Amino acid sequence: MKPHYNVVGAVIIKDGKVLALRRSDGNESVIHKFEFVGGKVEQGETPEAALERECMEEISLKIRVGELFNSVDYEYSDCIVTLSLYFVKPLSGYELKVHEEEKWIACADLDPSEWAPADGELLNSLKTGYVQTREAESADDYNIIRSVAYTVMHETFDETTPQGQVDYMINLFLSDEAITENKCKKQYSYRLFYLNGEVAGFCAYCPAHFYKPEYTEGTFLSKIYILGFARRKRITSRLLDSLRRPVYLTVKRDNTQSINIYKHCGFKIVESVSADIGEGYVMDDFVMMLSK
Prior knowledge:
By secondary structure, this protein is α+β, with helices and mostly antiparallel strands. The protein is about 25% helix and about 40% strand. The chain is built from 8 helices and 15 strands. It has helices at about 45-60, 115-120, 125-130, 140-155, 165-175, 175-185, 235-240, 255-265; strands at about 5-10, 15, 15-25, 35, 40, 65-75, 80-90, 100-105, 130-135, 190-195, 200-205, 220-225, 245-250, 270-280, 280-290. The strands form 3 sheets. The protein has a 7-stranded mixed beta sheet, with helices on both faces. A 4-stranded mixed beta sheet has the order 5-1-7-6.
């Protein structure tokens, strides 16, 4: 009977690219193939402790182990392995010790034939995009929200918005106090999106009547911001499918690109609104609706 080993691997992703390490030893099926940093779980070790040890031994990397991504049983010629992959957060720099090459590969470009067979079995979910969402609940979560908003809003609005307005809006609408008040008084939900374990964006929504009393049904989607690397991964469409219809949102009247995207999703312009938000800044928006 072939020996059986429990093996762990670290999925390290940055800006939509995964860290791949090429092996310099092993049998014919794995040598010179890419793999996730990791190794065998020793007797008495937890998978998390084994992964922390292996990352330090192989690439001098200190990590924080996150969620289990996936696992697979694979039979090699000389053994059977149960490989469990975890999303991890690097807490230090790293250096190669036992591998001959490192490469950051875009998840969409992952090719299982270039990887050790067990590792390659688990690549498809990363290629298509493993999306998770969770409710934002802590001050750290709110900091993530503001960081995403800062990146996306400056990228989108700097050329068409008066100087200072983007930062003013972030401070006005996304402070800890504003988020807490919206959650308590208007039943807002703030949700974080993750793509392949990496923060990908956030959304905020509430019952539509809190935006306008005459909207007696449905949902007001106050904000949805997706970072560049995570766009075109159906995150927005999955969210819309989960919301109670009709769905209302506002979009800047001169933001033609976003208007066309929402129209493609089925939204229609229903009215124009203007709002004085203070400090001389005005928001001129269209209200768009996705019907039942």
